[in-house]
Amino acid sequence: MKKIIIGIAALTLFIACKKLDDPAENPPRGDSYLKFIHVHPTAPALDIYSQYYNQTNKIGSNLTHKNALPSIGYMKLQSSDKPSASGVGTYWIHTQPALTADTFHKPTPILLERDSYQTIFNIDSAGTPKLLIFNDILPKLDSGFYAIRFFNAKFNSGNMTLTTNNNSPISADFMQLSNFIILAQNVVNFTLKDANGNIVDSLNNFSPRNKKTYTFFYSDSLYVTQQSD
Predict the structure, then answer these.
(1) SS3 of 23, please?
(2) What is the pLDDT of residues 159-191, one digit of tens each?
(3) Cα dihedral sign for 185, 8, 81, 26?
(4) What pLDDT does residue 143 have?
(5) CA-atom Rg of the chain in angstroms
(6) What are phi and psi of 116, to 5 degrees?
(7) C-alpha–C-alpha distance, residues 202 and 77, integer Å
(8) Is 200 exposed, middle or buried (0-12, 13-18, 19+ CB in 10 A)?
(9) Displacement of CA 165 from its chain's centroid (Å)
């Protein structure tokens, strides 16, 4: 049974960004909006912490596979330090297995531009957990329309294609995120096919909300989360 996701998890982080040597070297504060989507089918539940300058906040607790934080829209990361500052900011992400006192994983910096929207996917890459971050450019939608995109989190799957009963295909290889496509609002059925054209999963009777955006993803099953609130 398919689910609209409600929580998050992340493991060892793998992010292409400028790396800083110490959290104290952060540039001035930037407000940033994040959505975490956990698509690693065997990762443990984790607690997630963000650090900005010397301020550390717990942003997720006991977060598991097939879940996202928040369930709808984005969460805002904002430091209480230097409240009048503007520009960009680097947040450091710490993780640890939930409900344990284990040491944090090595802090990893994520450069977040002011007023930016980004989605983070926790994936399984050849048995190695990684975290991928994507900048989101949300489309402007007229009334009566919605937008979807597809993330392929299935290791060694090759190119996979998501289609609707109106035949609007979007494709993505492993670790790739497609662009948004805009569709007319109505109840639709989605079918996911592998690189050989074989049907691997489906989601039927999906009822999109007016002027909303959605991310579909596949690891061991097809799921969807609402991007915009």
Answers:
(1) helix
(2) 999 999 877 899 999 999 999 999 999 999 999
(3) negative
(4) 97
(5) 18
(6) -95, 160
(7) 35
(8) middle
(9) 26
- Please indicate whether the domains covering 23-135 and 145-226 agree at the CATH topology level: yes
**Among 2.60.40, 3.10.490, 3.30.9, 1.10.530, what is the CATH number of 23-135?**
2.60.40
d(CA 123, CA 138): 23
d(CA 156, CA 56): 36
Q: Which residue has the higher pLDDT, 121 or 172?
A: 172
Q: CA–CA separation, 126 vs 6, rounded Å?
A: 26
Contact 64, 7 (CB under 8 A): yes
Q: Would strands 75-77 and 32-38 be described as parallel, antiparallel, or unpaired? A: antiparallel
What distance in Å separates the CA atoms of residue 173 and residue 8, rounded to the nearest whole number? Answer: 23
- State yes or no: pLDDT of 14 exceeds 50: no
At residue 25, the 3 state secondary structure works out as helix
Sign of CA dihedral 17, 22, 25, 28: positive
Query: What's the rounded Cα separation, in Å, for the pair 194 and 1?
Result: 20
Distance separating alpha carbons of residues 165 and 141, to the nearest angstrom: 21
Given a cut of 90, is residue 152 above it in pLDDT?
yes
The ranges assigned to domains in the chain are 23-135, 145-226
Give the whole-angstrom CA distance, residue 122 versus residue 130. Answer: 6
Yes or no: say if 192 and 222 are a contact pair by the CB < 8 Å rule: yes
For domain 145-226, the CATH architecture is Sandwich (2.60)
Backbone angles phi, psi at 24, to 5 degrees: -70, -15
